[in-house]
Write a structure and sequence with these properties.
The protein is of the alpha+beta class. The protein has a single domain (about 5-125), classed as Beta-Lactamase (2-Layer Sandwich). It has helices spanning about 5-15, 20-35, 60-65, 100-125, and strands at about 35-45, 70-80, 80-95. The protein has a 3-stranded antiparallel β-sheet with strand order 1-3-2. Strand 2 and strand 3 form a beta hairpin. Helix 1 (about 5-15) runs antiparallel to helix 2 (about 20-35), helix 1 (about 5-15) runs parallel beside helix 4 and helix 2 (about 20-35) packs antiparallel against helix 4.
Length: about 130
């Protein structure tokens, strides 16, 4: 069984050490996949006008029978007080509670929002 406290700690560490949003998302997605069975993280910008999950492979995953539990969770991606998008997390698992997957999604979105604030500050400070 996945230890939620350790998972949260690892997510926090990845977000703090990552130099970019793409790096953090890739590393957190790999961590979550190792711990729960399968994970796909998708960032949808606020201004994105395309259909919500077009072309992401999520529909195919949700319709698959690879895992007895397949779930889709979302959490707002916020930088400071400004909405920047939505984190979409898709999980496949055998025994991880749905509530924990939702909490991991919300926590990951919060950490990615903090990372956005730090990387934006570094980029504007370097100019």
């Amino acid at each position: 069984m996945v230890n939620e406290s350790e998972l949260i700690s690892e997510i926090r560490g990845i977000a703090r050490k990552s130099g970019s949003l793409v790096e953090a998302v890739d590393r957190i997605e790999n961590l979550l996949a190792r711990e729960v069975g399968a994970a796909t993280l998708i960032l949808r910008p606020v201004e994105c006008g395309s259909p919500f999950l077009t072309g992401t492979g999520v529909t195919k995953f949700l319709e698959s029978r690879d895992f007895p539990f397949r779930g889709l969770y979302t959490a707002p991606l916020v930088q400071g007080d400004h909405p920047r998008g939505v984190l979409v997390a898709c999980f496949g698992t055998w025994d991880v509670p749905a509530e924990m997957l939702q909490r991991a999604t919300v926590y990951t979105a919060a950490q990615l929002g903090s990372l956005l604030g730090r990387t934006a500050s570094c980029q504007s400070g370097a100019a």
